[in-house]
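Re: duplicated header lines in exported structure tokens

Our pipeline writes sequence and tokens for each protein into one text file. With two proteins the header for the second block appears twice in some exports. Here is an export where it did not happen, for reference. First protein block:
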Amino acid sequence: MPLPSGLPRPLVLGLSFPLVVLNLWVFASLYRAFEGIASTFILAGVIALILNLPVRLLQRRLGLGRSWAIGLVVGLFLALAGLIAATLLPLLVVRFLAFTQVLPEWISATAQQLDAVRGRASYLGVPIEVSEIIEGLAAGLTAQLEGLLLNIPAFITGSLGNFFSLFFLFVLTIFFLIYGGDFVRNCLTSWLPGDNGLKALAVLRRNFNSYIFNQLILSAVLMAVLTPTLWLLRAPFPILSGVSIGLMGFIPFGAILGILLFSVLFMLKSFWLGLRIFAVLIVVDQVIENVLPPRLLGKLTGLNPIVILFSVMVGATLASFYGVITAVPIAATVKSLLLDSAEPASSSA
């Protein structure tokens, strides 16, 4: 039953807030109960959104039918994925394993340096106990790396490496490419009255396309620029570091987090090396994000960076990684729809 139109706006917002919270809680509970199925659907939808861009480009530029364009794009995508899996992925795995072997040596070297500092401080009469800090740092990093190494095979064999999971992911991606637009349109038009469903569809499609396109370009450019930059800075494992930071750049603020993470790890080998890498990569990252068109994500979605960060945190809480990659365009869509619904009310007043 719709609410009376004469209710004050603060009262409507106050009544809506507990309903929104309840719906989010129900969604999070359902997602955790059916996480495997939901993650496959979300991943297939994201891949379909990415592939839909070249499909539409082939339709417009070459005049191909949608079926032919989908077949061509999917074939090229599978060939590219196979090429990456056969060349780049083994290289990254080998470099990652080598990195986990040298990291304990860096921790030991840092521990020796801290022990030397403690000895000098004790000689000067300043008591500094760093043994517990060193042991805690070593134990924490070792546990994190062991957990990561154990989770990688489980992730590959469980969610993506399983033949049936890959098959259903492929089928769902094709389904979304062919019928996804009509399916979402029918759902929105049946849920929302009047022309609101078509408006929501247009806003949702625009925000998701802008987000996917921006983050893909940003991630690719970060990998292409940061990898040779790290090599010029004589950083250890430049390919592993550059590709990892670039992949993290697909997530809002992920590139900054990746730069900070690898800089801290390189500080274990050499403090000045890590500091130099951090300073240079931060400058390069900011130049890329402010000069590269399309520019900052906030300009594409109309969201404040604080709102973007909050949306990412909420998405991570509700649906882990898949919530992170879908939270920003959903938040931008909600904002656009709320602004559109507020304009008629303000104009009539």
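Second protein block, exported in the same file:
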Amino acid sequence: FKTSDIISLHMRVTPQTKNMISKRYLSLMKPNSYLINTARADLIVKDDLVSALKAKQIAGAALDVSWVEPIPDEDPLLALDNVTLTPHIAGATVDAIPLSPFLLKNVVNDYLVKGYSDMLIK
């Protein structure tokens, strides 16, 4: 966090990662650094991020997720000029969409192999 120009989050929300990115980590970031979150909103303490963005403590944030979807009109992030918001579509690419049924099949089969191998999807 101290040396990176860009921090990009790609993890699941677990008890260990929920609210992991708080004032503690945001305060370590450089004033010209950016935070990107295409994972889950609950990884970040929203109020701490809004404060850091308002104070220009970091250069900006790009968020493909929000704490409430769709994002409410009164959300403070919408008033900031140093945040880019997308409606949770980062994975919707020309390459990803045709592959998604196969990715899902593989995940389901991996689960089934652990105890239900007679139910595999062909």
